[in-house]
Amino acid sequence: MPSKRPLALFDLDGTLTWRDTLSDLLIREFGLWRCLAAGARLSPSLLGVLLGLVHRDVAKVQVLRHFFSGMPEAEFTNIAENYGRNHLAKLLRRQARERLDWHRKEGHRVIVISASIGDWIAPWTEMEGIELIATRLKRIDGQITGELEGPNCRGSEKINRLRERLDPQDYDPIYAYGDTQGDTAMLDIADHSTYRGLR
């Protein structure tokens, strides 16, 4: 029987990158002052997350609605593709870049599993020749709603979405890289887990 293929699972924000891609995209696209104004307007929810009073998914949707609700899908796609192709790679940590390249060179199956919106990650993963599982943004009648299409891809949802694509038992060994509690379920299924080790 042939040996099983190794599998490498990477979180994106804070693991592969040194900062959050959503905030980076928003500042690049809308400017610092508009983002600061939005932060002030949404401060009750954002502070609520820090205090454990507001679920992070609720605050995330409020931010997405503020900037993207009602935006034509074509405009949003242009913003996301430009960011993914021209800016995301600049955020990669050096050690994370090296580890990602090692897995690719060894022929491992590599999947980025992210709570960020897939639209601005996919252009980068496509250029890298790796796979992506990420949070989806809802569209209605050609417009962005700011709502999520299905659950936020964090915590146990990362594993739910992974199992929709493959059976982890078909891979050996499994490597996983994460940096927050939202990655714990993904790290738990790995033979080799790395928590905040790519810094």
Structural class: alpha/beta
Average pLDDT figure: 95
Radius of gyration over C-alpha positions, nearest whole angstrom: 17 Å
How far apart the termini lie comes to 38 Å
The biggest beta sheet reads: 5 strands, parallel
Number of domains: 1
Beta-strand share of residues: 15-25%
**SSE order, as H and E?**
EHHHHHHEHEEEHEHE
- The side-by-side strand order for the widest beta sheet comes to 3-2-1-6-7
CATH C-level category: Alpha Beta
Report the CATH architecture.
3-Layer(aba) Sandwich
Task: Report what the structure shows.
Helix 9 links the parallel strand 6 (about 170-180) and strand 7 (about 190-195). The longest helix has 14 residues, at about 75-85. By secondary structure, the chain is an alpha/beta fold. Helix 1 crosses helix 2. The chain is about 45% helix and about 20% strand. The protein has helices at about 20-30, 30-40, 45-50, 55-70, 75-85, 95-105, 120-130, 155-165, 185-190, and strands spanning about 5-10, 110-115, 130-135, 135-140, 145-150, 170-180, 190-195. The protein is globular. The termini are far apart. It has nine helices and seven strands. It has a single domain (about 5-195), classed as 3-Layer(aba) Sandwich (Rossmann fold). The mean pLDDT is about 95.
